[in-house]
Write a structure and sequence with these properties.
With about 425 residues, the protein is an alpha+beta fold. It folds into three domains: about 80 residues, 2-Layer Sandwich (Phosphorylase Kinase, domain 1); about 200 residues, Transferase(Phosphotransferase), domain 1, CATH 1.10.510.10; about 90 residues, Tumour Suppressor Smad4 (Sandwich). The strands form seven sheets. The chain has a six-stranded antiparallel beta sheet with strand order 1-2-3-4-6-5, with helices on one face. Strands 17-16-25-24-21-22 form a six-stranded antiparallel beta sheet. Strand 16 and strand 17 form a beta hairpin. It is globular. About 40% of the residues are buried.
C-alpha cells in the first residue's frame, strides 16, 4: 500500500528533530500513520490528509503538545511536524508495541485473556481517563477502535489522542456511532466529560460482556439497520438489555448469546454499576457513574478472584455470596478465603496475594503494594499479612489488645482481628 510519504522521506519537527520515514503502518479517515526513525529510535508519525489538515486541528495539537500527556497509557502527541509550505502537518507519538492487541481481537476470539487481565485492562483504562478528565480535557471519541492492551498483563495504550480537546476549546470529532451518548445522537449536546463517561461505560461493557449494552431484541428485529434505526436504538429510545423494570429488550438466545453467558459470571456490584449507567444514567448525564466509582469496584474485583479447586476456573468474590460461590464452569462450590474488609473495599487473603495501597486510601494513582500475604515459615498452613509499606500498622487482636506491626513485620490473619493502617482500619472476616 502506497502512502503520502515515501520511505526515506525526512520530516523535521518543531523541536528540530529529523525523522526518516521507514514504512506505512496504516490509514484512517483523517490521515496515515508511519513508522519513523531518528537516531536509532523509532516513533509513530500521524500525517494528515489535506482535507483534515485544518487550522483548528493544528491549534488543538499545539495545545496538546504543550499540555503533555496526563498518563503513560496515552500515545500522546509529543512533537509537531510541518511541511516547508506549512500546508500539511502531523505529529509524533510513541510507537505501539506489537504485543498489544485491539479489542476487536477479543471480540473475534483471536485472543483469550484471563478474567484477571480483563479486570486489569478495565482498571488501567478507567484510571487513564480519570487522569485525562482531572486535567480538564475531554477525549470525545472513546470506542474500542482507540484501545490496545497487552493480553498477558492488562497494560493499556490509548491512541488517536488528537481527538482530545480541553473544555474551553471546541473539537472536530463528535464520537463513534454506538458509543456516543444519547444526547449527542439526538443532536442536543456536544462532547463533555459526561458524554465520555457514557462511552466509557459502553466500552467497559464490551470488555466484560463482549456485547453492546443496548443491543437486544430491538436490534435483532431490525431489518434495515439505517440511520433512523440507529438514532432510535441509541438516541431517542435506548433501553438497557438487562433493565430491571423492562424486559422487552433482553438479548435473543442464539443471536446475542455473549451477554447472556457472561452477565451471570460477574459480581453483583459490577452489574449494579452497569445497570445504573444504562438506566438512570442513560438519559441523565449528571447521574452517570464516575471514574472513581468504577475504580473502586474494579479494584475489588482484582482483589477478589479465587480459583475453583476442582477445575481451576477464575471465580469472583461476590458480596451477595460472602461465604461461598458457585463455579460457573463446573458448578462446584468454591469456599472463599478470609477477607480483609476496609470500608467498602475487600481483599481476598490468599497466599502471595497483594494488598494494594489504593485498597487502603482510595487513591488510584499508584498500584504500590502496602502488604503481602505470606505463609508462616514454621507452619505453612498459617497465613499472615506482611507490612510492605513505610509506616507502622497497629494490630488489634480479638481481645482488644494492640501490637505494633513495623515495616517488614507480619500480622497474623485471624477472623475478628483488625489492623489500623493509619488512614483506615480493616477487619478480617
Amino acid at each position: 500500500m502506497d502512502g503520502q510519504l515515501r520511505p526515506g522521506t525526512v520530516i523535521t519537527t518543531q523541536a528540530q528533530i529529523s525523522y526518516r520515514v521507514v514504512s506505512l503502518l496504516g490509514a484512517g479517515g483523517q490521515g496515515e500513520v508511519y513508522d519513523v526513525e531518528a537516531g536509532g529510535q523509532h516513533k509513530a508519525l500521524k500525517w494528515y490528509f489535506s482535507g483534515s489538515a485544518l487550522p483548528q486541528q493544528l491549534e488543538i495539537l499545539t495545545r496538546l503538545v504543550e499540555l503533555g500527556t496526563p498518563d503513560s497509557s496515552f500515545l500522546w502527541p509529543e512533537d509537531l511536524a510541518l511541511d516547508p509550505q506549512g500546508e500539511r502537518f502531523g505529529y509524533i507519538m510513541g510507537l505501539r508495541p506489537k504485543n498489544y492487541k485491539g479489542l476487536q481481537d477479543l471480540l473475534k476470539c483471536r485472543i483469550d485473556p484471563t478474567f484477571e487481565v480483563l479486570c486489569r485492562t478495565a482498571f488501567n483504562l478507567v484510571r487513564a481517563y480519570e487522569k485525562l478528565h482531572s486535567k480538564g480535557n475531554c477525549y470525545r471519541d472513546i470506542s474500542f477502535g482507540n484501545l490496545f492492551f497487552d493480553p498477558e498483563t492488562g497494560d493499556v495504550l490509548i491512541c488517536d489522542n488528537d481527538n482530545v480537546a480541553p473544555r474551553d476549546m471546541p473539537g472536530l470529532v463528535m464520537g463513534t456511532p454506538r458509543f456516543m451518548a444519547p444526547e449527542i445522537v439526538r443532536g442536543e449536546a456536544k462532547p463533555s466529560r459526561y458524554t465520555d463517561q457514557f462511552s466509557l461505560a459502553v466500552l467497559l461493557f464490551y470488555i466484560f460482556m463482549v456485547a453492546h449494552p443496548l443491543d437486544g431484541k430491538r436490534e435483532a428485529q431490525i431489518k434495515c439497520y439505517d440511520i433512523p434505526a440507529q438514532n432510535k436504538l441509541y438516541g431517542t429510545d435506548p433501553l438497557f438489555i438487562f433493565d430491571p423494570n423492562d424486559d422487552s429488550n433482553r438479548p435473543v438466545p442464539g443471536i446475542q448469546d455473549n451477554a447472556l453467558i457472561y452477565w451471570p459470571m460477574y459480581p453483583q456490584e459490577l452489574k449494579d454499576l452497569f445497570t445504573e449507567s444504562f438506566t438512570v444514567g442513560l438519559m441523565n448525564p449528571n447521574k452517570r457513574v464516575t471514574e472513581n466509582r468504577w475504580l473502586a469496584v474494579l479494584g475489588n474485583m482484582l482483589s477478589g478472584i479465587v480459583r475453583c479447586p476442582k477445575c481451576g476456573a477464575e471465580i469472583f468474590f461476590d458480596n451477595a455470596h460472602p461465604s461461598a460461590s458457585r463455579c460457573w464452569h463446573c458448578n462446584g462450590t468454591v469456599a472463599m478465603p478470609t477477607t480483609l474488609v476496609i470500608g467498602k473495599r475487600r481483599v481476598l487473603l490468599q497466599p502471595d496475594a497483594i494488598l494494594p495501597t489504593y485498597q487502603i486510601d482510595g487513591r488510584y494513582d499508584t498500584e504500590d503494594a502496602a502488604g503481602r500475604v505470606v505463609r508462616n515459615p514454621k507452619n505453612p498452613a498459617l497465613l499472615g499479612l506482611r507490612n510492605e509499606s513505610k509506616d507502622n500498622w497497629t494490630y488489634i487482636k480479638t481481645d482488644g489488645s494492640h501490637l505494633v506491626v513495623a515495616p517488614g513485620k507480619t500480622a497474623g490473619i485471624a477472623k475478628g482481628a483488625k489492623i489500623d493502617f493509619g488512614v483506615k482500619t480493616g477487619e478480617f472476616e
